[in-house]
Amino acid sequence: MSSWSKLLTASAFIFLLLQVSIPWINASSENLVTVSLTEAEEALASSYGAVLDAEQAGANVSGLLDKLNLGGEYLSEAYFWYRSGDSEAANHFAGLCRGVVGNVRNEAIELMDAAQRVKDAENSITIFGSVVAVIVVVISCFVSWSIFKRNYRRRVLELRPEVVSDES
Amino acid sequence: MNLEEYHSLFFVVTLGLALVVAFPALAIVKPFQNSSEGFSEFWLLGPDHTTDDYPFTVGAGETYSVFVGLSNNIGDSGYYLVYVKFRNITQSLPDINSLEPSSLSPLYEFRCFIGDGEDWESPVTE
Asked: What's the pTM?
């Protein structure tokens, strides 16, 4: 047997041995659809979390909720076709869901940052105004008290004791 | 009233006015907690959008109209998932005691995002 034929035989033997000894991952279409559905689900949930944070920061998220609802409809359709056995349609709708909600998270973060900046500015103005107002109130009351005390003492000093004759 | 009493009166009035004008800043530092409890509503309506004429007895090949609705009053936007299941009289019901849903596979599911104070409704069709 020549060296090339020996090498070929050995290679074939090793290849067959590997096929049996190492567990190979066989990515069937059903597994791919399951992965696709899971990814769409996670994208939708993650985007909703970001939208919720933005809403709690004071942003107007009505436009983002509309996009999430569209993504939710696509994902519901995807699960419907998956349960009906149509993997291709399920994959298609899962892809549509991911496409719709893909940018929602970033938009929500931008809205949240903008709303937070506005809120911080408003809070700063409010706190500054309150501090100034407290100082004005305290100073005004102190000045009022000083004036009142001076007038009160003047009025007391102007009072002359009156001698009442003893009629006994 | 003597001078000491007037002094105390001025002090109390000053303190009261200072608290009033400082209230907006205090509200930022210590926000008011809304203690009311949030809730969601769920309803199922018949073909006339009423609680009458629910299609209890159905046959194959026929079309029936039912509406499912949700209302969000929890204080924030909500993510709701509604499973639509179809059962006959012999199949499993949800377990009320353990709060477990029916083990039947859903025919369809609705995924909706509802803002606070808003409603959502959809026809259930197949």
From this structure: 0.71
